[in-house]
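<given_protein>
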Amino acid sequence: MSRVKLVLDSTADVPEEWLSKYDIAMIPLHITWPDGKIEDDTRERDSVVEYWRTLEKASEFPKSSQPTPAEFTALYRNIKREGYDEIVVLTLSSAMSGTYNSALIAARDSNIPVHVIDTKKASAAATLIAKRAREFLDSGMNTQKMKDLLCQEVAEGKVHAIFYVSNFDFLVKGGRVSKFQGFVGGLLNINVCLYITHDTGDMIPFKRIRGEKKAQRAVIDKISMEVSAGSEVDVMMVHAENKEGIDILAEQLKEYYDIATFDETMMGKVISTHVGPGTAGFALYQRE
């Protein structure tokens, strides 16, 4: 059987232990501060927490940028040297970043077969898609069939990313507000509930609410309309300095669904830049 390495970009908010468990490599996006300082979107907890603190105090937010094709090429070469036969790259939505294109450009000249998949999602949703990919491969499925089936499940709306932000100001400063027509005026310090669409992979608001409890109820109501109660699902909770928020959401999800896999993680630097500390939500993969 072909030895396949999975690759996620750093916006996939993956628990550290999953990297070895599901044989995943990560490639970082980059962050550039207004003063010119550049840092990688790393997953080390202390570094991320420190970043949240800095972000809360910042008057100007940093800009994020995707890995270059050259960076992907170097990663592909390293993976081949490690003895792998094929690579599957799962990137965040191409509607949010040029990461998919960079991975694809590098794949064309790679000396190892590389399959690049636009997950149409981000954050913990991409992590659950990688888990599903590994399950298909471990069952003996070849990479092309795995890719086809995975893309089919994503297109059918089996993967959900739903969350709320506690301060709309971060969406404004993070540059995402241009997509949110009708949500702009007078919304600072209001909870905004968002989801990532299945078809285009855009991040879209669906509710604005005063009060975090109401926001939590709104995201649970949203998923209950998308996925029938009692369905078997994988769940990944995700937050940016709002552990209490995901704990409350988790208890409600456990009442609704037959959860096959449950875990939690924290949002990395790039995702946190756009949604801000105080964000809480989850990814859910409908298995049946």
Summary: The chain is about 40% helix and 25% strand. Residues 9 and 27 are 5 Å apart (CA to CA). The first strand starts at residue 4 and ends at 9.
